[in-house]
Amino acid sequence: MIEDILKEKKNMTSGEERIADYFLDKKTLLRKQSSRSIASQLFINPSMITRFCQKLGFHGYTDFLEQYLKEIEYTESHFQDLDPNHPFDDQDKNTVIASKIGQLYHEIVDDTLKLIGHDDLQNAINCLNKSDIIYVYSAGVQGDVAQTFKDKMLKIGKNVVLETKMNELYYRVSYCSLNCSFVILSYSGEIESELRGVKKLKERHIPLLAITSYGDNTLSQYADYVLNVSTRERLKDNLGDFAMNISTMLILDILYVSIFNTDYLKHVERRRSSSQGFDLFRTSKNPNIK
């Protein structure tokens, strides 16, 4: 994320470090400042501000400011009273833990929904809906969540292939038909084996949907479509990977329901007929679920 880059100050000159510190200190106050006014306060040439922003990968100060303010708005919303990395401690009673985890789930859902844009979601839905085969890759525990997505899609006639070995992605991409799409679940977006396959996807012009963290990672740069998960947990210092799991489940359910809704009556009939045939002998004494 931009804030992380500014804090790390990797390969920055002393002058660039002063600009980075200024941006970190002012945050949303930058909205009212031009590059010229910042330069006058730092006693530097305005062009140095532009070059600094370009060094970070932006076209200039205006482009940087737009993305930085958007990031600040995201990071300062939700999770005000709860640490997503350590949502409970050893002094909490069971009922307190239950309440905190419930609150955490609410925060993760709200956080995820805030990151989903209409056009991004619609483009992803269109891509998956017209694909003959959808290959879903996950190297982590999200594979279990993806399995549920696969099962739901199968019951409405959509062919989803779930893969959990990222090192096989490159070979799958090399020989698959062109009328398919790929979905990669990756929090960091920086796994070396997945990126080799992702570059091959680009080469063969096969669409890729990345479900990954908010910010600028390599997977997002190569993906045709990106949907972001709640990005509050650190990669290592957390107590359960709650955010990635809940976020991924929510996004996959949204995709499933949206695809279902593209031809609602047909999919209702497909799901009903397939379920009735397979679950013929399932029964329950509970009238609410019978």
UniProtKB/TrEMBL annotation:
Keyword annotations: DNA-binding, Transcription, Transcription regulation
Gene3D superfamilies named in the record: Glucose-6-phosphate isomerase like protein, domain 1, Winged helix-like DNA-binding domain superfamily/Winged helix DNA-binding domain
Domain SIS stretches: 124-265
Entry-linked PROSITE patterns: HTH_RPIR, SIS
Residues in HTH rpiR-type domain copies: 1-75
One Pfam family this sequence matches: SIS
Family matches, as CDD domains: SIS_RpiR
Protein name: MurR/RpiR family transcriptional regulator
Protein's organism: Catenibacterium faecis
